Amino acid sequence: MEWRAHVKILIVEDEPKTGEYLRQGLIEAGYICDLVPNGADGLHLALQGEYDLVILDVMLPGLNGWQVLQSLRDRGLEMPVLFLTARDQVEDRVKGLELGADDYLVKPFSFAELLARVRIILRRGHANSESTVLRVADLDLDLLRRRVSRNGKRVDLTAKEFGLLELLMRRHGEVLPRSLIASQVWDMNFDSDTNVIEVAMRRLRVKIDEGHPIKLIQTVRGMGYVLDVPEDQ
Fold it and tell me: CB 3.0-4.6 Å disulfide test: which of 29, 86, 169, 186 passes with 134?
């Protein structure tokens, strides 16, 4: 699948041999992988990075896997999580699923089985995100629930602001001229004497970018606006 090369997986595993075995195998299968050995680092990376899947060991030093998952879900992050555990207890499986895990794999397991589970979860998540969720960096726009969040925190937008952001995210990385924005969002011909687009964009930028180190909404002088991660980030 052509999207696989862009899929990012975070592995949180405190057994060095197991973690490196998984990382190397998934890289060879065509995925981008990060590996960390404890729950605190795993939570930090999951909150900061844009991951399509987290492979999470339950028994970790410091924060355990359940606590990491609970923290992710409490912050509104819905990336899929595959639990790994050495304990084949019904109670453990139920607890993980109730906290929001997508699947559960008991050690020891074959890499082929793990890879099959990973592909199933990613196919399901990819199909869902294509149809209902737009995502750029840590910015998410849920088309069904009409909700926007940045780094897991809810962002309240007006209907016009939502439509403007949706257009920018659907065509992220592309510089959109004011005439296109006017016709798509306001259903009007662009009038150079009006500053309605500039005002709306300014308000949207405050809501989306203020307080975040990475500024996603950018003005391209003489051309228009673009939503993308700056090249120097």
Answer: 169
pLDDT digits (tens, 9 = 90+) for 73-95: 888 788 899 999 877 666 666 77
What is the torsion angle, in degrees rounded to the nearest 10, for the CA atoms of residue 53, residue 17, residue 64 and residue 100?
30
Three-state DSSP at 228 gives coil
Q: How many Å from the N-terminal Cα to the C-terminal Cα in the chain?
A: 28
Contact (Cβ atoms closer than 8 angstroms) between residue 233 and residue 214: yes
**Among 2, 4, 233, residue whose Cα is nearest residue 118:** 4
Residues 33/6, Cβ–Cβ less than 8 Å: no
Q: Residue 176 gets which letter from DSSP?
A: B
Exposed/middle/buried for residue 14 (C-beta within 10 Å: 0-12, 13-18, 19+)? middle
Sign of CA dihedral 130, 134, 135, 140: negative
Residues 6+ apart with CB under 8 A from 129: 135
User: What are the chain's domains?
Assistant: 8-126 (3.40.50.2300), 133-227 (1.10.10.10)
pLDDT tens for residues 161-213? 999 999 999 888 889 998 888 888 876 665 655 688 899 999 999 999 999 99
Cβ atoms within 10 A of the Cβ of 68, count? 27
How does strand 153-155 pair with strand 147-150?
Answer: antiparallel
| Most distant CA pair in the chain, distance | 68
Q: What are phi and psi of 32, to 5 degrees?
A: -95, 130
